[in-house]
Write a structure and sequence with these properties.
Elements lengths: L3 E5 L3 H13 L3 E5 L2 H10 L4 E5 L7 H10 L6 E6 L3 H10 L3 E5 L3 H14 L17 E3 L2 E4 L4 E4 L2 E3 L3 H11 L6 E2 H9 L8 H14 L6 E6 L3 E6 L2
Parallel strand pairs: 1-2, 1-3, 3-4, 4-5
Antiparallel strand pairs: 6-7, 7-8, 8-9, 10-12, 11-12
Helix pairs in contact: 2-3, 6-7, 6-8
Length: about 240
């Protein structure tokens, strides 16, 4: 059974982005846009993970988290905080958060955090393309991808990828044969409110393609003119 995740987030664009990408990862996802309602939902139903924003209408994230822990709810919680808001991180951890991520963020980073927290809590999230064991490994042709270590190996040799290159590759590998738009990659990897242009995506994909093309033919990234990119895996 797929892990269930409750997202308590009132910013519509971010909520849709989280819901879409978590669903793409086969998580069962529910979104609540109000602190008090999110608290009641978390207490009524058993979720495997809660993603909790700090700034919410009704009860704020700290109040929600505090009340959850006071009522004995042990569900792992990942809080979303503003960039450089160290006091929010400290307060969130004191209230009982299991992890945190600062905004703006790339969704690939969030998904890696979610997977790590779920595994620490003992939730089985293995799926197609994942080799069983204590560490998640995604295979694509001759590639072996280690999401938690941000490492990629080709024929057993480590490929030196920059973090954003890794996140682009991970997103494409999880959608083999699907055309991914530049806007989608921008939102997922660089964050929905990143102010840079699509040229940033093209530069990173170009560098990634060169590294993947060395000594292997099982995986390639095709450019779809005017749209985006598609990963072809010949397993």
């Amino acid at each position: 059974m797929a892990p269930s995740i409750l997202v308590i987030e009132d910013e519509p664009t971010l909520a849709r982005l989280l819901s879409y990408n978590l669903s793409q990862e086969k998580y069962e996802t529910k979104v609540i846009d109000h602190g008090g309602e999110g608290l009641q939902e978390a207490l009524r139903h058993a979720y495997d993970l809660i993603i909790l924003d700090i700034m919410l209408p009704g009860l704020n994230g700290f109040e929600v988290l505090t009340k959850l822990r006071q009522k004995g709810c042990k569900t792992p919680v990942v809080i979303l905080t503003a960039r450089n808001a160290e006091e929010e991180v400290v307060q969130g951890l004191k209230c009982g958060a299991d992890d945190y991520i600062t905004k703006p963020f790339g969704v690939a980073e969030l998904l890696a955090r979610v997977a790590a927290v779920l595994r620490r809590s003992g939730v089985d999230e293995e799926g197609p393309g994942v080799q069983p064991g204590t560490e998640k490994v995604i295979t694509a042709g001759e590639l072996r991808i280690f999401p938690e270590r941000y490492e990629v190996k080709l024929n057993g040799e480590l490929i030196p990828l920059r973090p954003k290159e890794f996140e682009v590759l991970l997103y494409l590998v999880q959608r083999p044969g699907v055309v991914v738009t530049r806007d989608d990659l921008m939102n997922v990897v660089w964050g929905f409110d990143y102010i840079g242009g699509q040229r940033t995506v093209d530069v990173h994909v170009s560098s990634l393609r060169k590294k993947l093309e060395m000594n292997q033919q099982s995986v390639q990234i095709d450019a779809i003119r005017g749209v985006g990119y598609k990963l072809i895996s010949r397993n």
